[in-house]
UniProtKB/TrEMBL annotation:
It holds the Pfam family Bac_rhamnosid_N. It catalyses: Hydrolysis of terminal non-reducing alpha-L-rhamnose residues in alpha-L-rhamnosides. It comes from the Bacteria. GO terms for molecular function: alpha-L-rhamnosidase activity. It comes from Paenibacillus hunanensis. The lineage of its organism: Bacteria, Bacillati, Bacillota, Bacilli, Bacillales. This is alpha-L-rhamnosidase.
Length: 970
């Protein structure tokens, strides 16, 4: 095996893609090499049938392609056949001529491909014998005989409702809540399962459980039932291939038998009731006597909405044990899982009399008296009831067709709990979410921030359960579009989210209104549409997914939807370039809102027009990527018109924001809506708003994700870091200081006195404010992608050091090309920066405060390094910029430069207009207390003669805050 190797080969983001309808799937691979600056110069792809493991009769051979592309390479061979398994492999060449070995084969298997392929019938229990309204789950079974040696067996199945399959008494897969939640009227996923190891020659039996799920269960604010249909139903085909080439097909049809099962009730919000005494042992085995069961009937549900599984399946991804049990002041026996989680409790019972009933009621927090708190659940009951079967030796159970959001569990009825308490080993927490691979990490010298990162990730896990939900505990759990778009970049850094967002965005497109409007939630079960920042998810989410994964196909699929949304905005009101009509959520839950409102003080037409500008710009950029030159120019012109209208409407003649809110300033800066000459003033005004508020924010859902970016990118990174590290209310670390293990919906969901914000809308697991993670990874750790190419093909590394407040930070990301790392630490008088760049990529590294003559890499002076992978070095003002090839690097240089410039970045006093009291403070304290750099600035400035056109006025109070923060005042 050579040193240049392929370490990972994928098809549509998976090493094994089982059951796809994509006619031209795409391949990606990662390479490794101990050498630096290794680039791919060519590749060769081969695809063959699965029964040709040595690739002796390949069906497609790309031959050697002289191209550096190693992601999203589209299959270009003969049409793939339905329900057929393939192998694929790749080899590559480097620019130095080194040739890799063939990769380990990946697996690709097609599904039904077209609706006409389906032969099965949609079946449900005969409604003359089992009422369709039955709350109990349905059980369906069928026996069949196989005759011969079996080569392979595949099930293709789905449900109107949620389902679980069994073959010969064994569960078919570890999927939970299949087929997931889509816009069922338009799109319904089917699953493909490999059951080769579960079938046998001779007699066999297949069984299915059916429950309401999202399809016909009560959902939404009004507990509406039958949202998509009033019948549960199953669709299933089992395809058997024998070693002699024969094929046998078993389908769901009128030969099946039906009964009700032990799940007496299940609902996503309210929980599940399970009666183990109603279990029928062996019901999915071939020898079971089903003569007392009932017949089934066929439903005309059709096949045109069926699509192969797109999303990662929902699974149990982790099991955690409770850390404590206790009795509350109210006398309740309670489990503490130690983590606000989403999933279910697995209950273990000793041998118990039949009919013993155990009730589990789930909640997120305790109240200030130490009692378990259910108020924020609203009508959601989150209650699981289990009736024991009395099985000798004990029994175990976890809910099948529901999930809960909780940290604490009230337990009633567990054997002898009153006498001996609850045994910790009798309970396990099974964490449920879409099974996305983890791709990102972040850590720093402040353990509170590390806890915040922990909370961000757990918030994503809990709310990425098939759709990007707003909360996992109350009677909501909906795919709010605004929440998804503000968090998507943080989400895609932390987890591989391409299949997750591809599936959801296809639903966004399916739910889009004829006039281009976008619902508030997708799938849309509540009505309401077209709020700025919420509807803009139709543009921002596909663009961000493209940026992370280079997925031009998804961008092309969503492009018309993106355009339709911008055209919807253009058609609103009387002024084409302003959006000043309609309802908007505005800066939702901002702290500057009126007392009787959830909507912040920033004018909603300012926010709407800002997002109009942003979305029109992204559509122009998407059009350019897709080669739509004329449309790119047209939408760029529209973008410019909207920017001009924004400036005329929301920026004063003297260059201030007309709305004196943090969010107004943030959007103007981050969405680049200002003339260059005005940016410095608006940035200083924003800084003053934050500093004069005691380094606290007032922003809501719209302003918060971009607030720290607006500060860091305009010379106020010290303020942004101080804002992050603020542990008092309001701020990110306030909830951490209160013991939060996920992100809260409100800055003060729990107040300092232990009371709650409200019962009405108070989720303790709500990821939106976790969007600050994006800034932490990209600015504090400095790991960002360049604008030149998507998917981190060109990486931008630029740590913005935390001054005296942080001394270490590191982020890693498993990109499409491989692992990227950027970390730094202050080691005494030096700063050390370590970076790792994957093969077939390059990076720009900007080292702030560095001087080339004092910079070393692995102990060597930069100019003396031969063939080091360092392609170019340039000394710029107060930094060194390096162009790097792949490999790992360790740079070291004196840290003095960082501290010398930290205050001048924070605020340049020589450019500020100070009031008389502030001038007095500077004159009094500068000679004795200020750093050398600041003293120099002050001494060279005639502060009393600063003219009226120079930047923003800084008050005495604000200046005191700034100087005290930098330890320049007692």
């Amino acid at each position: 095996m050579g040193s240049f190797q392929i370490t990972d080969v994928q098809c549509e983001y998976r090493n094994r893609l089982l059951g796809t309808d994509i006619a031209r799937p795409r391949f990606s691979w990662k390479c490794s090499s101990p050498q630096r600056d290794v680039q791919q110069s060519a590749y060769r792809l081969q695809v063959t049938l699965a029964d040709d493991p040595h690739f002796e009769q390949v069906i497609w051979d790309s031959e050697q392609v002289n191209d550096s592309q190693s992601i999203q390479v589209q299959y270009a061979g003969p049409a793939l056949q339905v329900r057929t398994a393939y192998l694929f492999r790749v080899k590559v060449w480097s620019t130095s001529g080194e040739e890799s070995e063939w990769s380990e084969p990946g697996q690709l298997e097609t599904g039904m491909m077209q609706p006409a392929q389906w032969q099965a019938q949609w079946i449900t229990p005969d409604t003359r014998e089992i009422e369709r309204e039955s709350e109990a789950n349905f059980q369906l079974r069928h026996t069949f005989e196989l005759n011969g040696e079996i080569a392979s067996a595949r099930i293709y199945s789905t449900a109107a409702g949620v389902y679980e399959l069994y073959m010969n008494g064994q569960t078919v897969s570890d999927d939970v809540l299949a087929p997931g939640w889509t816009s069922y009227h338009h799109r319904l996923q089917y699953q493909t399962y490999d059951v080769t190891s579960l079938v046998q020659p001779g007699n066999n039996a297949v069984g299915a459980w059916l429950a309401d799920g999202w399809y016909r269960g009560k959902l939404g604010f009004d507990d509406k039932q039958y949202t998509y249909g009033d019948h549960r139903a199953l669709l299933l085909e089992l395809h058997i291939r024998y070693t002699d080439g024969r094929e046998q097909i078993i389908t769901s049809n009128t030969d099946w038998r039906a009964a009700t099962g032990p799940v007496l009730y299940s609902n996503m919000y309210h929980g599940e009731i399970y009666d183990a005494t109603a279990e029928q042992q062996g019901w999915s085995e071939p020898g079971f006597d089903d003569r007392h069961w009932h017949g089934v009937e066929v439903l005309p549900l059709g096949y045109n909405t069926l699509i192969a599984q797109e999303n990662w399946p929902t699974r149990v991804t982790e099991t955690i044990r409770p850390i404590a049990t206790f009795v509350t002041p109210a006398g309740d026996h309670v489990l503490d899982m130690g983590q606000n989680m989403v999933g279910r409790i697995r209950l273990h019972l000793p041998e118990t009399p039949a009919g013993t009933q155990i009730k589990l009621r789930h909640a997120e927090v305790l109240d200030k008296d130490g009692n378990i708190y259910f108020g924020n659940l609203r009508p959601a009951r989150q209650t699981v009831t289990y009736r024991a079967a009395g099985t000798p030796g004990g029994e175990t159970y976890a809910p099948y067709f529901t999930f809960q959001g909780f940290r604490y569990v009230q337990v009633q009825g567990y054997p002898e709990q009153e006498q001996h308490g609850l045994p910790l080993d009798a309970f396990e927490g099974e964490v449920l979410h879409s099974d996305m691979p983890s791709t990102g990490t972040f850590e720093c010298s402040d353990e509170r921030v590390n806890k915040l990162q922990h909370n961000i990730r757990w918030g994503q896990r809990g709310n990425f359960l098939d759709v990007p939900t707003d909360c996992p505990q109350r009677d909501e759990r909906l795919g709010w579009t605004g929440d998804a778009q503000v968090f998507i970049s943080t989400a895609l850094f932390n987890y591989q989210g391409a299949p997750f967002f591809s599936k959801w965005l296809h639903d966004v497109k399916a739910e889009q209104h004829a006039d281009g409007g976008i619902p508030f939630v997708v799938p849309d079960i509540v009505g309401g549409a077209n709020s700025a920042a919420w509807g803009d998810a139709a543009v921002i989410c596909p663009w961000t997914t493209y940026r992370y994964y280079g997925d031009t196909r998804l961008l092309a699929e969503q492009y018309d939807s993106m355009k339709k949304w911008v055209e919807y905005i253009r058609a609103q009101g009387e002024e084409e370039a302003l959006w000043n009509t309609g309802f908007h959520f505005g800066d939702w839950l901002a702290l500057d809102a009126r007392e009787d409102s959830y909507i912040g003080a920033t004018p909603t037409d300012l926010i709407a027009t800002a997002y109009y500008a942003y979305s029109s710009r992204l559509v122009a950029e998407a059009a350019a990527v897709l080669g739509k030159t004329d449309e790119a120019e047209r939408y760029q012109q529209l973008h410019q018109q909207v920017v001009q209208a924004f400036q005329a409407e929301f920026v004063t003649g003297r260059g201030r924001m007309a709305a004196p809110t943090q969010t107004a300033h943030v959007l103007a800066l981050v969405f680049d809506l200002l003339e260059p000459a005005l940016r410095a003033r608006v940035a200083r005004d924003l800084n003053d708003l934050v500093v004069s508020n005691g380094y606290h924010l007032t922003t809501g859902f719209v302003g918060t994700p971009y607030l720290c970016f607006a500060l860091s990118d305009n010379g106020y990174h010290e303020t942004a870091v101080r804002l992050l590290l603020q542990s008092s209310y309001p701020g990110w670390l306030y909830s951490v200081s209160q013991g939060a293990t996920t992100i809260w919906e409100h800055w003060d969901s729990i107040k300092p006195d232990g009371s709650f914000w409200s019962d009405d809308m108070n989720s303790f697991n709500h990821y939106s404010y976790g969007a600050v993670g994006d800034w932490m990874y990209r600015r504090i750790a400095g790991l960002d992608m360049g604008m030149e190419e998507p998917a981190y093909r060109h990486i931008h590394l630029e740590p913005q050091f935390g001054g005296r407040q942080l001394t270490y930070a590191k982020a890693t990301h498993e990109s499409m090309y491989g692992r990227i790392e950027c970390g730094w630490e202050l080691d005494g008088e030096h700063v050390i920066v370590q970076v790792t760049i994957p093969v077939n990529t390059a990076a720009t590294l900007r080292l702030r405060g560095a001087i080339l003559e004092q910079l070393t890499e692995n102990g060597d002076a930069i100019p003396s390094i031969p063939a080091s992978g360092i392609r170019n070095v340039q000394q710029e003002v107060e930094l060194v910029q390096l162009e790097l090839g792949s490999g790992s690097y360790c740079f070291r240089y004196p840290a003095k430069g960082l501290f010398q410039r930290s205050y001048t970045e924070h605020t340049r006093l020589s450019e500020l207009q100070l009031d008389e009291q502030a001038i007095s403070i500077v004159n009094q304290h500068a000679p004795q207390l200020l750093s050398g750099a600041l003293t120099s600035i002050v001494s060279q400035s005639s502060l009393r003669q600063i003219t009226d056109n120079q930047m923003t006025r800084v008050s005495e109070n604000t200046l005191k805050h700034m100087l005290k923060e930098l330890q320049m005042l007692p």
